[in-house]
Amino acid sequence: MAGQSKIEAYIRTEMAPTMPPPASTVGIVGWMRANLFSDWINTVLTLIGMYLVYITLQTVIDWAFIRAVWTGEDNKACLDKEVGFHVGACWAFVGSKFSQFVYGRYPLEERWRVDITFLVGAVGLAWMIIENAPYRKWVAIFMLALFPLMALILLTGGNFELSSGSWKAFSLLSIIALVGVAFVGVRAQTKGSDFDLSTALMIPAAILAYIFLAYFLVDFDFGMAPVETSQWGGLLVTLVVAITGIVASLPIGILLALGRRSEMPVVRMASVIFIEFWRGVPLITVLFMSSVMLPLFLPEGVNFDKLLRCLIGVALFSAAYMAEVVRGGLQAIPKGQYEGAMALGLPFWKMMGLIVLPQALKLVIPGIVNTFIGLFKDTTLVLIIGLFDLLGIIQLNVTADAKWFAPSVHNTGYVFAGLSFWIFCFGMSRYSIYMENKLHTGHKR
Questions:
Q1: Which letter, b or e, does each residue of 201-211 get, where b requires 16 or more Cβ atoms within 10 Å of its Cβ?
Q2: How far apart are CA 307 and CA 230, in angstroms?
Q3: Phi, psi dihedrals of residue 169, rounded to the nearest 5°
């Protein structure tokens, strides 16, 4: 018994208190020890990197803030001999030309129309992004259906004065489309299919009603002065080209991806030819052809607006790349998902819309956003056809305006352009990361 009591003296009768981990293994200190100073090689590389960052930041801060010129009316404010020191950034040039960077040569008295377009677009986009915002569905419908018409009428002035011939042609095509859908529905019902004719007619009827509304609105005279697209420029052109290309390329790309995987040879071959043709041609060539060569093949007296030709070319070019991104997502979906949807009796479009496409698009969010970012940066190529986007209008003022000719003006203008593009592209990338984290199903590695 005495030996047993001695043994029990060494047995713990209560749980030991939980002690916090060593301070050197948690928090910022722990992260630095594990990632930056784990051994002598990483320590040396970290110190070298910190020294390079210090030199870079010191130079940037000195150029952008300490030696910068913030106010002035012309290049004299940014010349070394005039101010008595070596000038850094000439932000006075950006301040003087800022309105031109945003609007281009848009008439001064009509710029309120651009402001309204920017404001409504920004509020609508923010409303759709905020997760718990009320009426998000209706706001999304407004932004996709009505906002483009509103922006078109505000920016151009509307009152396109469409000819009666175009109305007749449109009415004839509408009737043919409705008759075609009705014929397909009757044939399907006679063969015992569960084809719902009323539902099938509802979609084209809604589309036709929207097109009729668009024809009426763009033909109506709202009393606003017309503004030619040749007067547009700056950030306005950049956003118009980028947003139009982004919005149009995704649905077209999805249809092309589905067409490339179709079992119908004609549809598959047409999709392959379209995708490979547009992916094999540089965008600068597409823009040049749409601006210079296309009018040569049109009948005499028939012409399209230069900006409209540019938008069509950019949308088709981007859609080809988007199709390949979406096709990669479709190929990543297991075959069991298709078989399960077919076992439930879902028709093709319901299977794609409810089962396959949501999963495929979720998988390729990084690729989709990467295509969007690339398209946004490629808008600078429109300068080749005489459209002055943000970078083009900055370059024009840097090189052609003798009033602001100074060595520091060139660097400042291009830095401002790069910073503006970075803000938009970084915002898109961060939102894509947020969507990835929100939609992942717990299988991320």
A1: eeeeeeebeee
A2: 8
A3: -65, -40
Both structure tokens of 150: 């509103």
Question: What single letter denotes the amino acid at residue 39?
Answer: D
Segment 204-214, tens digit of pLDDT? 677 777 777 87
Residues pairing with 90 in the sheet: 69
Cβ atoms of 192 and 219 closer than 8 Å: no
Both tokens assigned to 282: 């540089």
Residue 145 DSSP label: I
Alpha-carbon distance of 107 to 379, in angstroms, equals 23
Alpha carbon 109 to chain centroid distance? 30
* CA–CA dist 372, 202 (Å, integer): 32
3-state secondary structure of 389: strand
192 pLDDT higher than 50: no
**DSSP-assigned beta bridge partners for residue 307:** none
Q: Encode burial over 191-200: b for 16+ CB neighbours within 10 A, e otherwise.
A: eeeebeeeee
Interhelix angle 265-279/306-332, nearest 10 degrees? 120
Q: Does the domain formed by 91-158+231-439 have CATH 1.10.3120.10? A: no
Q: Per the structure block, which two tokens stand in for 75? A: 């290049």
Nearest alpha carbon to residue 324 among 378, 246, 272, 375 = 272
**Hey, where are the domains in the chain?**
19-66, 91-158+231-439, 160-220
Which residue in 79, 81, 384, 112 sits closest to 227, CA to CA?
112
Q: Count of CB atoms within 10 A of residue 380's CB?
A: 17
Region 106-133: what's the mean pLDDT? 93
Q: Tell me how far the alpha carbon of residue 233 is from its chain's centroid.
A: 19
Is 337 within 8 Å of 356 (Cβ atoms)? yes
On whether the CB atoms of residues 139 and 120 are closer than 8 A, the answer is no
* Token representation of residue 313: 């070319």
CB 225 within 8 A of CB 110: yes
Measured at the CA of 163, the angle between CA 160 and CA 167, to 5 degrees, comes to 105
Alpha carbons 55 and 408: distance in angstroms, whole number: 21
DSSP state of 356: I
**Residue where the block lists tokens 């060539």:** 285
Cβ proximity of 295 and 361 under 8 Å: no
d(CA 288, CA 313): 10
Tokens of 294: 């296309």
What b/e string do you get for 302-339 counting C-beta neighbours within 10 Å, with b at 16 or more?
eeeebbebbbbbbbbbbbbbbbbbbbebbeeeeeeebe
Taking only the tens place, the pLDDT of each residue in 33-72 is 888 888 889 999 999 999 999 999 999 999 999 999 998 8
